[in-house]
Design brief:
The protein is α/β, with parallel strands linked by helices. The chain has 16 helices and 16 strands. The structure holds pyridoxal-5'-phosphate. This is Beta-alanine--pyruvate transaminase.
Length: 437
Amino acid sequence: MTAMDALWMPFTANRQFKANPRMLVSADGMHYTDADGRQVLDGCAGLWCVNAGHNRRPIVEAIQRQAAILDYAPPFQMGHPVEFEAAEALAAMAPKGLSKVFFCNSGSEAADTALKIALAYHRARGDAARIKLIGRERGYHGVNFGGVAVGGMAGNRKHFPASLPCVDHLRHPLDIARNAFSRGEPEFGVELADELEQRIVTLHDPSTIAAVIVEPMQGSTGVILPPKGYLKRLREICDRHGILLIFDEVITGFGRLGADWAANRFDVLPDILTCAKGLTNGCVPMGAVLVKPAIHDAFMAAAPAHAIEFPHGYTYSGHPLAAAAALATLKLYEDEQLFARAASQQDVFMDTALSLQSASGVKDVRTLGLVAGIELTPWADKPAGARGYAVFQACWERGVMVRFTGDTIAVSPPLIIEPAQIAQLFAVVAEAVEANR
Ligand SMILES: Cc1ncc(COP(=O)(O)O)c(C=O)c1O
């Protein structure tokens, strides 16, 4: 048995886990192998990141090759070819108009980098009064101070009350009473975007607001879908008031919603877009912030030619192994047309997800592309989240890995999933729900 004392695990009930560990020892395609040699169907692409499936040879070999050629290069005042190639490849596949790429190492770093770019951009243009950042209730933008401040998951925030100042939040658009069992964008709730103009812009004055940051689909909080027209409305309001719109596409990027990007699926172009996870298929940590050229150019115009234009970056920005993994991953997405494949599977996926509507105590199913959230009625006599955990554990015991947040089960498999595996995945979730009424 592996010794378990030293490791303090992240976002994990450590004592509960160590009493009954779920250990993954290898992976291939759609499956993990656990410590007992069982095959476990991956129902959540690792952690929303392994979009091309596990242990893909082209990515593994690219990382191995790169490690033997250039292990590390400092990213400040030095460069290496692979990071430039990776940036070109990412810009070429990004929503049109987002052509400048800043690399970091995670979704959290991408969120904080994006917020800093927004603040420094306004300052570079001589509009330094724009210092306020607007997030959304139940939003998740990672765990760094900026991301937690604009994020809206109460359980993540309450432990760190010393947050950033000058932050406000929009309401989240989850409305089960009007939109239960949504297949694709919910019908009702576009007017919630008006809150940005009617309450927040009015209260703060637009001249003080730098940016609005939202996940096009709120993933970590339990799959909250954008109502029809909602994101377009946010875009229009931001445009009217000179506010930057940031899309956090850490989950929604790289095919997850049945399109390459949520920006393209919803036909709304943000000024800044963050991504991570699927950028390297989860193989090597990497995040990126994509911006419109006008934002990048404002930094160039504001600083003397010899000066560092944006004093920000990480020791591992554009790391050679991550850059090689990103290049190989983006090529694999293209070679196998995986985003089109996700789009072709989404109808079966969403229909199968919605078949859980009739399972005991299912309060809502929300599904879009290859994502589904199944919200359960909490157990009356146990703490909130107890039922979600029990269903998650029951799925694991039946050979399927899903996620849970509170009493919502989240499903987001690799994009290579086959129809028979979609059926297996939801059949196991249904069985686990029934076993934990
Ligand atoms: C929308 C979003 N932003 C940011 C993050 C944070 O990413 P990371 O865990 O790589 O820091 C996540 C992680 O799930 C996410 O879903």
